[in-house]
Amino acid sequence: MKRQVLLFVSLLSFGPVFGQVSYSIPEEMSRASLVGNIAQDLGLEIKRLISGKAKIYSRNSDQYIELNRERGVLLIKERIDREALCTEKALCALDFQILLENPMEFYTVTVQIIDINDNAPTFEKSEMNFKISESAATGAKFDLERAVDLDVGINDLQKYELKPTENFGLKLHSNPDGQKNVEMVLLKPLDREKQEQISLVLTAVDGGEPQMSGTMQIFITVLDVNDNAPVFTQKTYKATVTENSPKGTVVATVTASDADQGSNSKITYSITNTLDNVRKMFYVNEENGQVSLIETIDFEKSKRFQINLRANDDGGLTDSCKLIVDVLDVNDNKPEINIMSKSTVISEDAKLNMVVTMINTEDLDSGDNGNCNINTNIPFLVSSTSNNFFSIVTDSDLDRERASEYNITVTCSDEGVPSLSSSVTLTLQISDVNDNAPVFERSSYEAYIVENNTPGLSIFTVKATDTDWNQNARVSYILEDSSVNGVPVSSYVSVSADSGVIHAVRSFDYEQIKDFYFSVKAQDGGSPPLSSNVTVKIMIQDQNDNPPQVLYPVQTGGSLVAEMVPRSADVGYLVTKVVAVDVDSGQNAWLSYKLQKATDRALFEVGLQNGEIRTIRQVTDKDAVKQRLTVIVEDNGQPSRSATVIVNVAVADSFPEVLSEFTELTHDKEYNDNLTFYLVLALAVVSFLFVTCLVVIISIKIYRWRQSRILYHSNLPVIPYYPPRYSDTLGTGTLPHVYNYEVCRTTDSRKSDCKFGRAGSQNVLIMDPSSTGTMQRIQSEKSILDEPDSPIEITNHKKVKQTI
Ligand SMILES: *[C@@H]1O[C@H](CO)[C@@H](O)[C@H](O)[C@H]1NC(C)=O
Ligand SMILES: *[C@@H]1O[C@H](CO)[C@@H](O)[C@H](O)[C@H]1NC(C)=O
To answer: What is the 481 CA–ligand 2 centroid distance (Å)?
Structure first.
């Protein structure tokens, strides 16, 4: 500290006051610092001071200054603080007196205290807090606390400084009291979002040397104003969701931020779509912006959603964004099979690659639709004509006879993982084509029929089958034209067109025909018809229908043939041989000969096999001339048939002997002729009466028949049958008889007739009624007696056979 000693001595008056001295010292001098050399300044000697017991007299200042009598100086007794001593007075001085005794005198001393800059400007508070809305307008003023500097003058507060100066400046107002108010002025608008807390330092500076300052912190809290809208982090969000995701699945989260604070930054999210169904499908959590599903989502209905979202802060400011949700396909749809067109029937002669069915498939899922297949082992295949269009075509030849129906199962599967498929079954009928001829069950047929059958008898049945269907398989049997022995075969047999039953048209005679062939055609009903042939062989079986026929000896009514046996004949003499034939065959024609009756059984025997009549003993004279043998000829049929023949044997050595013997026979004949005459007469009478009656009856019948002619009409086929046998006569007469084969073709009974073969007049077998209808001879009425030396007539033997 610079000591300032202001020596001012004034001796204005003496008396009680002998002098006055002033000193000027800076404040805050340390203790014992010299204030002033009072002895020197007052002109007093140290001794006087001591002797005078100099002391300071003061009412209030003695505590600061003390008097050192020995040195004659004034010293600082206690540090002097001007501000404490004088407060704000600009002029500050200590006034005291120095009293001396012996003599008593006093001196006035004034010590002026000079200010030094020992006080810095100070603020009452070290900090000030403000809350200023960010919307505060520029120019707004905020009062600041003043700083105080106890120093005076230049040492007093001189100016303020505010730092930083970005938003605020200072303005000073001079108050009437000379004090200066300080204000803070908003120079630039605040932005809470940029700087919420502003810290300023206000510095008050004085003018002392060295300069001193005081500071105060100013804390400004910028209050929020809803001056910021929410802002989404993206304008467009993208998200994907797989279809069929469960409800509640979070699709995406949108986020908006608001730079404001508090409720001004409280964001509420919402969906703003109106027309579409987005709000039915999606839900946004209004607080956290999570977008989730509230419905199951179907790719097949919507593949993409655009969700418009809005963010609101509480102050009503908004922002919006889009959320694009792409739906991911899941293979949840089977392919759908549509039959575009199909044939239910296809001909078995269909060509290859003929389209049977056309199919279209559709899969609602995305991606490739996959492929279609059909079951294997059928003559069809699937070909793809273009995308999603398939056709089923024939792949190989069809044969209705092998398979008349196909079940085609079409299976279409997609290419998803796992793959889904669906199938449909089509039934396809194969229609028939006449591609199969009838086939006889056998390659040839043989049948037997016993002769003398009834015409119309069914012999047997041929059967042919046709593997085709319906009309194409309807087999008709047709007798092929051919001739048997020059006669059309149709006059032998007929074939029933429907049933294939072969009927005999006529009665067969084994003796005339033993077998014959013909051909039967089986023809189906197709167009054109197909046919096949089979050969049929009919074999006629023999029946024992013919008795043996005795060819020799020839029998006549009068039995006039006789064999001569000389009386000299030896044992075993061959008398004659009975010759018989049987037109049947086999057993039926195997003849045996037996002697039935004989005048003398002991004389003759008949060879069983050969019919030879031989003597079995020596002929004696006693033996009658006239021997009569009855030989029976039997065949071996079942039942057997037989014929008897009378063999007259004359046992004589000479012809006259025989003649005389047989004359009786002539008489007998005359007798017989008489008897015959009477019989014929009686018969004639009876016959006449009978015929008369017959004529009358027939006349009546004819009359009635004419009346009822229309009514009497029948279509029933009546096949009269006249088995061949000997016609009988009325006794004496003989009627010509031929073996007749009747061919009776009859459609109307009234027109029925049988044609009899005409008998050749000379080739007729004649029957003698007296010999039970078994004798035969030629028709010429020559008596054996007319030609006695040629008694045996066998001339027409061969012709008889021919007639047969
Ligand atoms: C085809 O299916 C039907 C009905 O299931 C069946 O009756 C028929 O026998 C089947 N046909 C073939 C050839 O499998
Ligand atoms: C059947 O036989 C007839 C005559 O014998 C002949 O003309 C025809 O060609 C034959 N048909 C067949 C299919 O054999």
So the answer is: 10
